[in-house]
Amino acid sequence: MHIRRAHLNWTFEDVVLGIYDRFVHPSTMQDARQDFMHAKYTPEMGIQGFYDTLMDYAQNMIIYPDDYQVMKKFICGIPLDIRDKIFDCGLSLEVNTIDNLIACAKAVEISQKTADYYRKKTILDSIPAMRENSSCHVRTTPKPRVTYPRHTTLVSKSREDCREEKREEVPTRRLYQNQSEP
Q: Which of 12, 60, 148, 161 has its CA 20 to 30 A from that of 104?
């Protein structure tokens, strides 16, 4: 505390407002709005990442955007093919919630990634067949065929089986040695 302070008695509200006035600049709120408006979808972050980015920017805005603005920005920011499939599913901004749009967009995104994976896999798997069927006149030496011996399967015995074998191997003692054998 300083002797020459301007305000002698502080309430909690006065402290919070004073800190806000001192450290939060008006341009900060404008920056959050600009960030929200210029947010872009990237395949690396995906649908959920794009939505999370929008929500992070929206939370920093002085006036939180309404649900329709968030949905509009979300729909306008995602790729056109995903947007078209969302509308083909019968979803719209006016009727559905943002959660419905995100769920549908994520389903479309996952199905596209799966289709791309198997499309690439099919192409890569067909390349050796293409080489064999091609009319190239490159002579290659065939790989020598290596035959491996057949594997024999080992039968593992349980502990109980081993114990039973040991019992059978041990000669039985006579209980009464004084008895003569019949």
A: 60
Q: Give which of 72, 77, 87, 7 is closest to 42, Cα–Cα.
A: 77
Instruction: Quote the DSSP letter at residue 6.
Output: S
- What is d(CA 134, CA 128) in angstroms, rounded to the nearest whole number? 10
pTM: 0.56
Half-sphere exposure of 136 (CA within 13 A, CB side): 8
Q: Are 36 and 57 in contact (CB under 8 A)?
A: yes
Neighbours of 74 (CB within 10 A): 23
Q: In degrees to the nearest 10, what's the CA dihedral of 38, 43, 47, 49?
A: -70
Give the chain's end-to-end CA distance (angstroms, integer). 115
**174: part of which helix (H) or strand (E)?**
none
- What DSSP character marks residue 156? P
Q: Is the dihedral of CA 130, 133, 137, 142 positive or negative?
A: positive
Residue 65 neighbours by CB under 8 Å, 6+ apart: 36, 58, 73
